[in-house]
């Protein structure tokens, strides 16, 4: 008998059910609903479930708020939120979602809410938070913004290279696996230097003294100010000083001095490669102890065989400019006549002294020239003979000083780490450098955050709602990070890599690649029966299982609601 299809429904499921179950595992709706005030009598759906709906939409099909309702018209709402909830697409219209954002903002606890959800997730997954990496990124926006909220949407230094647009910032604190621990929305002109004390204070308040002893706080060079160093070393109320690793700024007084000492002593310790990549840099180091603001710090001069492309281009431009200046100065000197050879040699001596710090070999020579001139200016009289005088010209020959240039390259290939991890046996130079290099964990999250799939235009004009929506962005990033973490951890126990679309093999798939794997999952529903249509074969189901689930999350509503 042919199967009747007139009462069948087709849903483009994609990764929606997977994201919904991850939200449930991370207790996102549960924690939000326990903190944010709402009336179950007046509200058909809780703020926590509306936030969950936004997260699903962000990671599946980024839409403006007024299109989210349309998105859910093509989703299996019972599978996502549970049959008991009796959720309807209109529960996600822009007014309902806007009111949910208002309630989030009105709680006044967005920062605390995020840390509560993130730390609960870390505890659930037994995630170590010993290495803490911190950074900010700018989110460019357009238009005017209403409301009296704390989020200052304004012009500032743009990490998106869009100084023409207003912006706000998102600050993230992640562990070395890139799993968010703390998150915060910041005003558009907030500097990292002024924000770091807030992060340090939040860590001290959030973590127990025992946990703080295990933490190593890693941040870029904006952390290193005398005030911030004093704050990191502060011990009070049974809270220990916070262990940290950072980059000593180039303009910090000790930087040049400590590099010069390292090249003078030359007692380098071989570190080798930190990566298995064929073109990975090879490192060596030297450690020194210096006092700053009454505290001893360990300064590690690190030399890399790979010069950063930007630094190399900067050096090449600087040398070209120096040569141009030298050539113009040498031409000007060569045009000046001198009455005696001694004066010309003196001029060469002064020239060489003035430009002695340039990476060029300068050689001066003096030429003698017979100059003819008449006694009086103007047209000479008939028969008048010119007088011959001897004049001298100074010439400068310019050659590249290969040795000096190589030394400059060496200096440019070095950087100085600063830390209060003074025990070189427990924390050798290699371990400190490796922990600092894990800073790309937070940068990787920002790259995911900036993808159009997650963070397109901000379709809000009320800045309080923008701040609440920024909190939702951070939660979406948290969910994606745990998807990536769970799959990677499971793959460590597997012998074969995951086969991604395009037959790419990976043992460390990114969240983006994983989400793309589920793009074409479809669900067919007839009555209460569902069937999963999977165009990409067994690897998609394997990815589900690696994440800790199975295809049943697409086929059966969760018990007890979402």
Automatic annotation (TrEMBL):
Signal sequence, renumbered to the chain: none
Domain of life: Bacteria
InterPro entries: DUF4277, IS1634_transpos
Residue ranges occupied by any DUF4277 domain in the UniProt entry: 17-119
Pfam families listed in its UniProt record: DUF4277
PANTHER family found in the cross-reference section: PTHR34614, TRANSPOSASE IS4-LIKE DOMAIN-CONTAINING PROTEIN
Name of protein: DUF4277 domain-containing protein
Organism name: Moorella mulderi DSM 14980
């Amino acid at each position: 008998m042919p199967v009747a299809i007139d009462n069948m429904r087709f849903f483009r499921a994609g990764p929606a059910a997977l994201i919904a179950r991850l939200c449930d595992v991370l207790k996102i709706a549960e924690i939000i609903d326990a903190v944010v005030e709402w009336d179950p009598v007046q509200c058909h759906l809780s703020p926590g479930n509306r936030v969950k709906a936004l997260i699903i939409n962000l990671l599946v099909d980024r839409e403006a708020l007024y299109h989210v309702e349309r998105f859910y018209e093509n989703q299996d709402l019972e599978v996502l939120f549970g049959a008991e909830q009796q959720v309807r697409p209109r529960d996600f219209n822009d007014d309902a979602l806007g009111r949910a954002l208002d309630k989030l903002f009105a709680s006044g606890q967005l920062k605390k809410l995020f840390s509560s959800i993130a730390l609960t997730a870390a505890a659930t997954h037994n995630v170590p938070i010993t290495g803490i990496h911190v950074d900010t990124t700018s989110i460019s926006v357009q238009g005017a913004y209403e409301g009296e909220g704390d989020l200052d949407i304004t012009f500032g230094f743009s990490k998106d290279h869009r100084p023409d647009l207003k912006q706000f910032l998102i600050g993230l604190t992640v562990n070395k696996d890139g799993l968010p621990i703390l998150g915060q929305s910041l005003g558009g002109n907030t500097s990292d230097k002024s924000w770091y004390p807030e992060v340090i204070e939040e860590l001290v308040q959030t973590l127990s003294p025992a946990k703080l002893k295990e933490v190593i706080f890693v941040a870029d060079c904006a952390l290193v100010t005398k005030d911030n160093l004093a704050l990191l070393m502060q011990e009070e109320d049974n809270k220990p000083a916070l262990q940290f690793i950072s980059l000593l700024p180039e303009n910090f007084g000790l930087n040049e001095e400590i590099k010069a000492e390292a090249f003078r002593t030359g007692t380098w310790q071989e570190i080798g490669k930190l990566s298995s990549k064929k073109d990975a840099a090879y490192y060596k180091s030297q450690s020194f102890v210096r006092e700053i603001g009454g505290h001893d710090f360990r300064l590690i001069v690190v030399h890399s065989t790979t010069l950063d492309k930007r630094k190399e281009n900067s050096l090449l431009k600087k040398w070209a400019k120096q040569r141009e200046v030298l050539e113009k100065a040498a031409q000007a000197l060569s045009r000046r006549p001198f009455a005696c050879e001694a004066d010309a040699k003196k001029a060469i001596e002064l020239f060489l002294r003035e430009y002695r710090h340039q990476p060029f070999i300068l050689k001066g020579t003096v030429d003698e020239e017979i100059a003819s001139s008449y006694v009086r200016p103007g047209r000479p009289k008939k028969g008048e003979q010119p007088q011959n005088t001897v004049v001298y010209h100074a010439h400068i020959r310019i050659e590249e000083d290969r040795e000096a240039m190589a030394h400059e390259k060496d200096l440019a290939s070095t950087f100085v780490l600063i830390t209060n991890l003074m025990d070189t046996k427990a924390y050798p130079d290699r371990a400190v450098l490796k922990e600092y290099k894990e800073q790309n964990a937070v940068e990787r999250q920002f790259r995911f955050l900036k993808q159009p799939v997650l963070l397109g235009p901000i379709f809000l004009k009320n800045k309080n709602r923008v701040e609440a929506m920024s909190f939702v962005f951070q939660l979406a990033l948290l969910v994606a990070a745990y998807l990536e973490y769970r799959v990677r951890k499971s793959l460590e126990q597997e012998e074969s890599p995951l086969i991604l679309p395009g037959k790419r093999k990976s043992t460390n798939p990114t969240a983006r690649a994983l989400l793309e794997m589920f793009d074409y999952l479809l669900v067919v529903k007839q009555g209460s029966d569902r069937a999963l249509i999977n165009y990409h074969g067994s690897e998609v189901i394997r990815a589900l299982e690696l994440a800790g689930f199975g295809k049943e999350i697409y086929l059966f509503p969760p018990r007890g609601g979402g």
